[in-house]
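Consortium newsletter contribution from the modelling node. Members have asked for a concrete example of what our holo predictions look like. Here is one, prepared for the coproporphyrinogen III complex that several groups have been discussing at recent meetings.
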Amino acid sequence: MIKNDLLLKALRGESVERPPVWMMRQAGRYLPDFMKLKEKYNFFTRCRTPELATEITVMPIRQIGPDAAILFSDILVIPQAMNIEVEMKPGVGPWLPNPVRTMEGVNQVNVPDVHEELQYVFDAIKMTKQELNDEVPLIGFAGSPWTILCYTVQGQGSKNFDLAKKFCFTNPEAAHILLQKITDTTIAYLKAKVAAGVDVVQLFDSWGGMLSPVDYQTFSWQYMQQIIDALKDEVPVIAYGKGCWFALKEMSESGAAALGVDWTCTPRNARYLSGGKITLQGNFDPARLYSPPSEIKKMVNQMINEFGKDAYIANLGHGILPDIPVENARAFVDAVKEYRG
Ligand code: CP3
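And here is the predicted structure:
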């Protein structure tokens, strides 16, 4: 049923002619047509209006040609649905006016009925599926509970999420209650996304690498594992952890269909640490898309040779940067499509 099923094949570990390719954060940011919509509608209006979310999701498919679409939305719709105010300030990024930093704060956080609070996401999925007409699979996503806690406690982006860590280490009881509430909401949310039609889900643990390996188990991984356990029989799950190479062994035994890795780990080491069998996704340095297209193409070939064409999904090691020239993004995708081992 899905015409281009390269991604699904790679997730099942089946042999492919060339690896599938998509780019984290491919919907929006660097695309001129997205910038035009951005002038007219604020961020959460774009997320909440299924017609706009659909248009933005499909844009890179038509203009760049990756093998999968990722729904335009944000990981922060989850805290929003849990009774935590979240704004997106132009030039600043996420802004939470009332960060959660006490047990009293945690007690005010809801585990909502996702159909009441997030129906607009499920409507956007249905509309996007229609628009895509089964050309490529649609990826749904959520942030990891730890990454969501980072914003919920810090109140904004940060280089080190020091306040989030301080909260976890001074008030672990409250932190674990909050993490469990986020986990429960995320499981219900992702199940509803699958019911609405997404073909794959990805968990973004963008700030997992802020934690020591021991704290990673305690404050991030055990909650990721709960989500994978709840979803893995319904849908392939990709677990992406930025800076989490130290956890690849544990992650490879989790039931996730694939693991996302960033550019600080060599393909060879990622294969070694993850046991050599599980599908890996990554890991081009997003800043390398500033290089000229000819160099991008050379480096992409090298990357595929190092990972191997099978059990592999070509991607960046983190989200695409906002000022990447469109032709460089296209060179990345084309290089994978032209790959002939
Ligand atoms: O391909 C896609 O873009 C799909 C949609 C998507 C967005 N955010 C749209 C968005 C996805 C998958 C995300 C995930 C996300 N959001 C993560 C995890 C992935 C990662 O990059 O680490 C995180 C940490 C966030 C939180 C967030 N949202 C930040 C830090 C920012 C501001 C800075 C930035 O990246 O531009 C956002 C805003 C946001 N989310 C934008 C987009 C396209 C840009 C703002 C805008 O369009 O007005």
